[in-house]
C-alpha cells in the first residue's frame, strides 16, 4: 500500500466508503433526513426526531434516520426530507414538522403511501409529479459552492464526504506541489470572507515565503456578529470540507499545525469539528504523512470565550496565547509574526471552505461566478423583516433587490421596505435608493456599508433608524476591548447621544457632534472594531437625516417606535361602546371608561407597551399611536361618583 | 545615523527608533501617553501621537512608525490636530483633574498636551462621563486613582516585562476597563521596593502615598483649571 500515490490511496478510501454506504442503505427502507444543526434544534428538531422514532417503533416500521446539517431554509424548520422509494415519490422536503406532524407522516406516508402533500415544501429533485424546490427562486437564484452539500450529507460521516469525492483536492495537491495550490488560489481571485476581502492567494504567498521553520494556519470561526450564523452552520453541516480547505492551506504555506478557533457558545459545531478531525486522522487524511505523502498536519480546536473583538485576528491570537483579547497594532501582520511569533495564516471558515471546490473545478470555473473583482459566491444570513429568513448563497454581483425580494420573498405583512443593514453591527444601513447595488466587496464599501462576514438585517417601515443606530452602537460599545481611547470612550459618547435623541432630549448640536465624533472614531481607532463601529451612525445620518431631525426638532419619531416620543390613545369614534377587550390587558390599569361608556387611556399611567393595540379587536382597530406624544388627546377620567352611570 | 525631515527641519537620528522618539529627542513635542521604549510592539492605545508621513494617506500614530532615511513627517497639520484634540477631549471626559493633590505636581502629560493643542482641560462639547469605579482603590500597597488613569498600560507593561513581577493587569472590558493587581488584599508583595509602575504613570494615578482626602476625588468636583 505504501507505494501508492495520494490519489490512488484516496480512491481506495472512497471505494470503501461507498461500499459501506451501499450496505447501510437498502432500497426498501425509507430514509428520513432531519435538519439537526443548531437552527433546526432551536425550532424543535430533536423533539421531531424523537416523535419519528417513537412512531416508527410503535408501528414496527423500519427507517433510517439521518441527522443532517442546514438546508438554508431556516424559516421552515424543522425540515425533514423523506425518501420512500417504495412509494414511487422522489425525495420530498417537509416543512415545519412538529412531533404531531411527524407521527402523522409515519402513518400516512410510510404506512399507507399517502405523502400528505399539504406539508411538502417541494420535491428535492425535478420530477413529473410535483414541483421541485430547485425551481423555487430561493434555489434557482442561489448558487451553492460552499453550501453545495449542506443538508444533504451527514456531517458526522466521513464516508458521506468521501463518497462525493471529498479530500480529492487535497490528494491532487499532494501529488503536485504547494506552488500549484498557491497559483490556483491566486488565479481564482478568491478574497477573504471574514470581512475585509483581502486576496487569499496573496496572504498565502506571504506566509509561504516568510522564512520560518514552523508556521500555523488558523481558521477564524469566532463569528461574533449578532444574528449571524453562517460559519456555525457550515461547520455543523459539512465539517470535512473546512478541514480539507485548512489542509490545503497548510500544505501551500508549509504549516504543520492548524487551529480552529470556535466560540464556546457553539457546542454542536465544536463537537462536529472535533469528531471530523478524529475521523480524518484515523483515515490517514490528517496527522502524520497524510495519504502516504511527506506532508503532516495536526489540527486542533480552540474554544474562545465568545468576545466579538476576539474575531479580530490579532486579538484572536492573543487569546490563544492566553492573554487578554486585545487587538495589536499591525504591522507586523500575522503572516509575518502571528501565533507565538510564527508566520500565521488567519482565514475565515467560508474562505477555507471554498478552496476545495476551487482546486477541484479550477480557478477558471470559480472566476466564472460573481464579478470581476469579487469572484465566487457570498453567503448571508438574512434576518429581520423578511419573509424567508435563513442562509443564502448567491453569486457575487446579485443586487440587494434580488436577494431581498426574490430570493428571500420580500417584506412580510405588506409593509414597505425601509433599510438594510449589511456587514454586521459595524456595517452600514442602506436605504431603498441602494437596492440596485451589486453585492460585492467594492460596491458595498462604496455605498458606506461593507461585506462584513455575512450578516444582513432587513428592516421595514416600522423601524426607527435612530433607534437602529442606537441598537448597534450599544452592541459595539459593549464589545469594545477598552484598549484605545477613541473606541473605549468615543463609542460610549455616541451611545449616550443617540440614547438622548431617542428619548426626545436631543439637542440641535447633537447631529453635528455625532458626525464629527463618528469620523474621529473611524479615523483614530486602533483596530477594525473601532474603525467601523460608527458606520451605522454615519450611514443613517447620511441616508435618514430627516429622521434624526424629526427626533431632535419636533420630538417626533416618524416610525412611531421611540417610546418617549410617542403616545397611545383610543379613537372614540372607532371604540365600540361597552367593549372592554383592552381593559384587562393593560399592565398598569391605565385604561378607563369614559362618560360615554367608551375607553380612554390615562396618559400619566401609560407605559406605552402597546398591549392594547393587540387586544383591540381588528374590526374596531381603535387604538392609535402618535408622535410627538402631545398629539394624543387628553381625556379626563370621570370622577368616581359620576363614573358608573 | 539617518536624516529625516520634520515640519521642514532636518533632524539626524539613529536608525531603528520610532518617529515619536526621533521627534522627542530633537525637542519636537508630540503628545504621547502610552509609549514605552522597551515595548517590542507598540501599544498604540492613547491615540495622541498622530503625525502625517509622506506616502501615507492619513495620520498615523508616530509610536508605530520606524524612522527611514529621507522620511518627511509633519506634526502640525489640521487632520493631525483634529484627531489629537478629539482623543484628548475623550480622555478628559473621564478624567478628573485635581491639581492641588496631584502627585505629578504640574509635570502632568495631560496639561502639557492641553497647552500644545491650545484646548482647555474641559471635555466640552462632550459631556463628562461617570465611571463605575471607586475614587480611590487599593492595589496591594499601591494607591490607585481610577479617575486619573488614562489606561495607557505603561504600569502593566513595566510590571510584567521590565521588573518581571507581572502583578498588574487590566480587568473588566471596554468602558469599564480598570487597572487591577494580583496582589491579594492586605498583602505587600514586592511593590513597595519596586514601584516601577509609579514612576511611569503619566497622570499620577498610581502612588505609594497614603490616600488623599476622599472629597477631593469626588467626581463632579473637578477643578477645570488651565482653561
Ligand atoms: C472586531 C472584528 C471582529 C472580527 N470578527 C471576525 C469573525 O468573527 N470571523 C472572521 O472570520 N473574521 C473576523 N474579523 C476579521 C479578521 O480580523 C480577519 O480579517 C479575517 O479572519 C481574515 O480572514 P479572511 O482573509 O478569510 O477574511 C473581525 C475583525 C474585526 C475588526
Ligand atoms: S478599536 Fe476598540 S476594540 Fe479595537 S483596540 Fe481600540 S478599544 Fe479595542
Ligand atoms: S495607572 Fe497610570 S500608568 Fe497605569 S494605565 Fe493608568 S495612567 Fe497608565
Ligand atoms: S504614544 Fe502613540 S498611541 Fe499612545
TrEMBL record, chain A:
Keyword Iron-sulfur: yes
Alphabetized UniProt keyword annotations: 4Fe-4S, Iron, Iron-sulfur, Metal-binding
Top-level taxon in the UniProt lineage: Bacteria
InterPro entries on file: 4Fe4S_Fe-S-bd, 4Fe4S_Fe_S_CS, Nuo51_FMN-bd, Nuo51_FMN-bd_sf, Nuop51_4Fe4S-bd, Nuop51_4Fe4S-bd_sf, Thioredoxin-like_sf
Domain spans labelled 4Fe-4S ferredoxin-type: 566-596, 597-629
Pfam families: Complex1_51K, Fer4_10, NADH_4Fe-4S
GO terms for MF: 4 iron, 4 sulfur cluster binding; metal ion binding
Assigned protein family: Belongs to the complex I 51 kDa subunit family.
PANTHER family the record matches: NADH-QUINONE OXIDOREDUCTASE SUBUNIT F (PTHR43578:SF3)
Protein name: NADH-quinone oxidoreductase subunit F
Species whose genome carries this gene: Desulfacinum infernum DSM 9756
UniProtKB/TrEMBL annotation, chain B:
Name of the protein in its database record: NADH-quinone oxidoreductase subunit G
Keywords assigned: 4Fe-4S, Iron, Iron-sulfur, Metal-binding, Repeat
SUPFAM superfamilies named in the record: 2Fe-2S ferredoxin-like, 4Fe-4S ferredoxins
Residue stretches making up the 2Fe-2S ferredoxin-type domain: 1-79
All residue ranges annotated as the 4Fe-4S ferredoxin-type domain in the record: 140-159, 182-211
Gene Ontology molecular function: any one: 4 iron, 4 sulfur cluster binding
InterPro entries named in the record: 2Fe-2S_ferredoxin-like_sf, 2Fe-2S_ferredoxin-type, 4Fe4S_Fe-S-bd, 4Fe4S_Fe_S_CS, PSI_iron-sulfur_center
Keyword Transcription carried by entry: no
Keyword presence, Membrane: no
Pfam families linked: Fer2_4, Fer4_7
Amino acid at each position: 500500500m505504501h507505494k501508492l500515490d495520494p490519489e490512488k490511496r484516496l480512491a481506495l478510501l472512497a471505494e470503501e466508503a461507498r461500499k459501506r454506504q451501499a450496505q447501510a442503505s437498502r432500497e426498501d427502507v425509507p430514509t428520513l433526513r432531519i435538519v439537526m444543526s443548531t437552527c433546526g434544534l432551536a425550532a424543535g428538531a430533536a423533539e421531531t426526531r424523537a416523535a419519528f422514532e417513537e412512531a416508527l417503533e410503535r408501528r414496527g416500521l423500519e427507517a433510517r434516520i439521518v441527522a443532517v446539517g442546514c438546508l438554508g431554509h431556516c424559516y421552515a424548520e424543522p425540515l425533514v426530507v423523506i425518501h420512500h422509494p417504495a412509494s414511487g415519490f422522489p425525495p420530498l422536503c417537509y416543512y415545519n414538522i412538529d412531533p404531531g406532524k411527524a407521527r402523522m407522516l409515519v402513518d400516512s406516508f410510510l404506512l399507507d403511501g399517502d405523502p400528505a402533500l399539504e406539508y411538502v415544501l417541494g420535491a428535492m429533485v425535478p420530477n413529473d409529479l410535483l414541483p421541485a424546490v430547485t425551481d423555487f427562486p430561493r434555489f434557482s437564484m442561489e448558487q451553492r459552492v460552499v453550501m453545495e452539500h449542506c443538508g444533504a450529507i451527514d456531517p458526522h460521516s466521513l464516508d458521506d464526504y468521501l463518497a462525493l469525492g471529498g479530500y480529492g483536492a487535497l490528494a491532487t495537491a499532494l501529488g503536485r506541489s504547494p506552488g500549484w495550490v498557491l497559483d490556483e488560489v491566486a488565479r481564482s481571485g478568491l478574497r477573504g470572507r471574514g470581512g475585509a476581502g483581502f486576496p487569499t492567494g496573496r496572504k498565502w504567498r506571504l506566509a509561504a515565503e516568510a522564512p520560518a521553520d514552523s508556521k500555523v494556519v488558523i481558521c477564524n470561526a469566532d463569528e461574533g456578529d449578532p444574528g449571524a450564523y453562517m460559519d456555525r452552520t457550515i461547520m455543523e453541516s459539512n465539517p470535512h470540507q473546512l478541514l480539507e480547505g485548512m489542509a490545503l492551506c497548510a500544505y501551500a504555506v508549509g504549516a504543520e499545525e492548524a487551529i480552529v478557533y470556535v466560540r464556546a457558545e457553539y457546542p454542536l459545531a465544536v463537537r462536529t469539528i472535533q469528531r471530523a478531525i478524529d475521523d480524518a486522522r484515523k483515515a490517514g487524511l490528517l496527522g502524520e504523512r497524510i495519504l502516504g505523502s511527506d506532508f503532516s498536519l495536526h489540527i486542533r480546536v480552540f474554544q474562545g470565550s465568545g468576545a466579538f473583538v476576539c474575531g479580530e485576528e490579532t486579538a484572536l491570537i492573543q487569546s490563544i496565547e492566553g492573554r487578554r483579547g486585545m487587538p495589536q497594532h499591525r504591522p507586523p501582520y500575522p503572516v509575518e509574526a502571528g501565533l507565538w511569533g510564527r508566520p500565521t495564516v488567519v482565514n475565515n471558515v467560508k474562505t477555507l471552505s471554498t478552496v476545495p471546490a476551487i482546486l477541484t473545478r479550477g480557478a477558471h470555473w470559480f472566476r466564472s461566478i460573481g464579478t470581476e473583482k469579487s469572484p465566487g459566491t457570498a453567503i448571508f444570513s438574512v434576518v429581520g423583516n423578511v419573509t424567508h429568513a435563513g442562509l443564502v448563497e448567491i453569486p457575487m454581483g446579485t443586487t440587494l433587490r434580488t436577494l431581498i425580494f426574490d430570493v428571500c420573498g420580500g417584506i412580510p405583512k405588506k409593509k414597505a421596505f425601509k433599510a438594510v443593514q449589511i456587514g454586521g453591527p459595524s456595517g452600514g444601513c442602506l436605504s431603498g435608493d441602494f437596492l440596485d447595488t451589486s453585492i460585492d466587496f467594492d460596491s458595498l464599501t462604496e455605498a458606506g456599508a461593507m461585506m462584513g462576514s455575512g450578516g444582513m438585517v432587513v428592516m421595514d417601515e416600522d423601524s426607527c433608524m435612530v433607534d437602529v443606530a442606537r441598537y448597534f452602537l450599544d452592541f459595539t460599545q459593549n464589545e469594545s476591548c477598552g484598549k484605545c481611547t477613541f473606541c473605549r470612550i468615543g463609542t460610549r459618547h455616541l451611545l449616550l447621544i443617540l440614547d438622548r435623541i431617542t428619548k426626545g432630549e436631543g439637542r440641535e448640536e447633537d447631529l453635528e457632534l455625532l458626525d464629527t465624533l463618528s469620523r474621529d472614531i473611524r479615523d483614530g481607532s486602533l483596530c477594525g472594531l473601532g474603525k467601523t463601529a460608527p458606520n451605522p451612525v454615519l450611514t443613517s445620518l447620511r441616508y435618514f437625516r430627516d429622521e434624526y431631525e424629526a427626533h431632535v426638532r419636533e420630538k417626533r419619531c416618524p416610525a412611531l417606535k421611540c417610546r418617549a416620543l410617542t403616545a397611545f390613545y383610543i379613537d372614540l369614534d372607532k371604540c365600540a361602546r361597552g367593549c372592554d377587550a383592552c381593559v384587562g390587558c393593560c399592565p398598569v390599569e391605565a385604561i378607563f371608561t369614559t362618560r360615554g361608556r367608551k375607553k380612554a387611556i390615562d396618559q400619566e399611567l401609560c407605559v406605552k407597551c402597546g398591549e392594547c393595540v393587540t387586544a383591540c379587536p381588528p374590526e374596531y382597530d381603535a387604538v392609535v399611536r402618535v408622535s410627538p406624544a402631545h398629539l394624543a388627546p387628553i381625556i379626563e377620567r370621570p370622577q368616581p361618583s359620576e363614573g358608573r352611570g | 545615523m539617518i536624516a529625516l525631515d520634520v515640519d521642514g527641519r532636518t533632524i539626524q537620528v539613529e536608525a531603528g527608533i520610532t518617529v515619536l522618539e526621533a521627534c522627542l529627542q530633537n525637542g519636537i513635542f508630540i503628545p504621547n501617553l502610552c509609549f514605552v521604549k522597551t515595548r517590542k510592539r507598540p501599544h498604540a492605545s492613547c491615540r495622541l501621537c498622530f503625525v502625517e508621513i509622506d506616502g501615507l494617506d492619513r495620520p498615523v500614530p508616530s509610536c508605530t512608525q520606524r524612522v527611514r532615511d529621507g522620511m518627511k513627517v509633519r506634526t502640525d497639520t489640521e487632520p493631525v490636530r483634529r484627531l489629537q484634540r478629539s482623543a484628548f477631549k475623550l480622555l478628559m471626559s473621564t478624567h478628573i483633574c485635581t491639581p492641588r493633590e496631584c502627585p505629578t505636581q504640574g509635570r502632568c502629560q495631560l496639561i502639557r498636551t492641553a497647552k500644545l493643542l491650545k484646548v482647555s482641560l474641559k471635555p466640552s462639547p462632550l459631556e463628562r462621563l461617570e465611571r463605575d469605579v471607586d475614587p480611590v482603590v487599593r492595589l496591594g500597597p499601591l494607591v490607585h486613582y481610577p479617575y486619573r488613569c488614562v489606561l495607557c498600560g505603561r504600569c502593566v507593561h513595566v510590571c510584567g516585562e521590565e521588573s518581571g513581577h507581572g502583578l498588574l493587569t487590566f480587568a473588566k472590558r471596554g468602558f469599564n476597563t480598570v487597572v487591577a493587581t494580583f496582589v491579594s488584599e492586605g498583602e505587600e508583595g514586592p511593590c513597595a521596593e519596586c514601584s516601577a509602575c509609579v514612576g511611569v504613570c503619566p497622570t499620577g494615578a498610581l502612588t505609594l502615598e497614603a490616600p488623599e482626602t476622599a472629597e477631593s476625588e469626588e467626581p463632579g468636583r473637578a477643578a477645570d483649571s488651565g482653561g
